[in-house]
Amino acid sequence: MARIHALVVLCLLLTVGAGCLTFGDDNPTTETLLADLNETDPPETVAATFEANWTYEGATLSLSYDAWYRSDGASRVENDVGGRTTVTVDDGDRRWRYDPGQNTVRVRPGGSGDDPVTQMRRGLARILQTAPVTDIRETQYQGRTVYHLTLDPAGDRDQLVPPLLPGGITSRDEQLDETETPFNTTRMELWVDAEYMFLVKQRIEGEETGVFRYRNITFEGVDDDRFEFEVPENATVQTPTDSENATDARAPITP
User: Which segments carry the region annotation Disordered (predicted)?
Assistant: First the structure.
């Protein structure tokens, strides 16, 4: 589990690349998508299953968890790894991490930093402004209209692109050179929901490869009680030290 935590972090690194490109009249442009992103409010709620499959140092890895997000930053994540279930709830005031198998609850201050949806939208804006987008097409993904973006710097190693999804994957080494990105990604595809400008799928290619996506996604109908947590009877409550809190505050909500 600790290894997964070390790998699964959000990476919103600056890209070093070309300016926005435009395309034919029949397809959207980076300018129109950026305008849509700026004019579209984030969804009030998001519910979905997040899946990641990638290669890292020659190993094939996968991750899956159920997630619920609310526009005020509240969130809930439930996952099952090797038969071990964990539940993480952030209600804005506190973040609860419950391990039913051990009947333990770790609690620390919540609401630290931007929520995953806000982080994703900021990273998407950066890509639309600076990255080597070579094609944009309108298509369908799980019954929803999406924009399919292709980013391909045509072999120019100075134009690398970063993974973008909440729960994206990066290397253990956080001291990356400014011209490097996780996986040394040289080509990327994004699928962006047209109604909410929400990134629903991503594929990266480079020294490593990966596909990250949401499935069974819905943007409405999530009850507020999803973002509430009550300590189970007889559970042991653990409060991290100040140093542990500082470390946790830099990490996104993940299984």
Answer: 234-255
